[in-house]
Amino acid sequence: MEILTLDVCGKLAHFRKYYANNTALSYSIPPRTTVMGMLAAMLGYERDGYYERLASSHLRIGIRVVRPIKKTFHRLNFLSIKSRGDAVEGTGDFTGAGGRIQTPFEVVSGQHIGKDTVGYRLFLAEGEFDNGEFESLKKALLSSQQHFNLTLGTANFTAWMENVRLYEDVKAQQSTDFVRMHSAVPSAMIERLEFRKDDPEGYNFLEEELLPADFIANDNRELSKLLRVLFSTQGIPFEVKLNTQFFQIADPNGSPQHIVFLE
Questions:
Q1: Domain contains 174
Q2: Residues 135-164: what's their mean pLDDT?
Q3: In a domain, 215, yes or no
Q4: Does residue 110 form part of some domain?
Q5: How many C-beta atoms lie closer than 10 Å to residue 170's C-beta?
């Protein structure tokens, strides 16, 4: 099979948790649904019109943290809007007459917010029922043709692409031993997790989150699938025994990396 990879990088990121109404909490990595939005922006698809075209059955998506990340809370000042007023006359709270209100906002950044950047590596492949979307993405990315700018969550957190690569004739592998996994792994695929405290690489920072994966249909943002996913926030591989197949491809430096897709 073919696997297309690319790094999406930026200064800051925010991937709002869909169940948080009062505070703007963020996932540490972009959920599959967010990645779908990034890919749709590259291809120039209309908002809410790509949910079925980029569903799990048509396109396989994996993700890896490639630069250590952390999350911090910040306070944002918003206008307190209670009265719309008249826009022509310049009245109402949109003028700032109603004052301001502070709300907490969780931001994903590098370890040093002033120097470091955020980086995620995306892995793309044809789904079980290929509908041509992978070919469209391959053509657009390899020729550096994208319609809209990328962002890491919110519109003001702009992003850029690096290390676009295509791997051909990649074979699925399976092992009963521990495997050093580099990508995020759905928890249902893991039989056992290994920590080695006496090894510097065995000391890792892992998170497990329940991430949105698919929507019911176009223009309907109700979720049809959620995935519980385990990943390293430091970009360090972690050792697991898997109950499924995995794939091995080289990273930009030529070192092997083991991945699975979020499915």
A1: yes
A2: 92
A3: yes
A4: yes
A5: 14
Question: How far apart, in whole angstroms, are the C-alpha atoms of residue 37 and residue 54?
Answer: 9
Calculate the CA 218 to chain-centre distance.
20
Region 225-248: mean pLDDT is 94
Range of the domain at 129: 3-81+100-259
State the CB neighbour count (10 A cutoff) for residue 196: 12
How many Cβ atoms sit within 10 Å of the Cβ of residue 28? 20
Which tokens in the block code for residue 167?
């791997």
Q: Which helix (H) or strand (E) holds 38?
A: helix 32-43
Q: How far apart are CA 250 and CA 102, in angstroms?
A: 46
Residue 90 within a domain: no
Return the amino acid letter for 32. R
Distance CA 246, CA 179 (A): 9
| Rounded Cα gap, residues 236 and 202, in angstroms | 9
Structurally, the chain folds into a number of domains equal to 1
On the CB side of 118, how many CA atoms lie within 13 Å of its CA?
A: 24
Which pair of tokens denotes residue 193?
């997790």
Mean pLDDT over each residue of the chain, to the nearest integer: 90
Distance CA 40, CA 62 (A): 16
| 186, 262 contact by CB (below 8 A) | yes
For residue 40, what is the domain's CATH number?
Answer: 3.30.70.2660
Q: Is 137 helix (H, G, I), strand (E, B) or coil?
A: helix
pTM: 0.90
Percent over 90 (pLDDT), the chain: 73
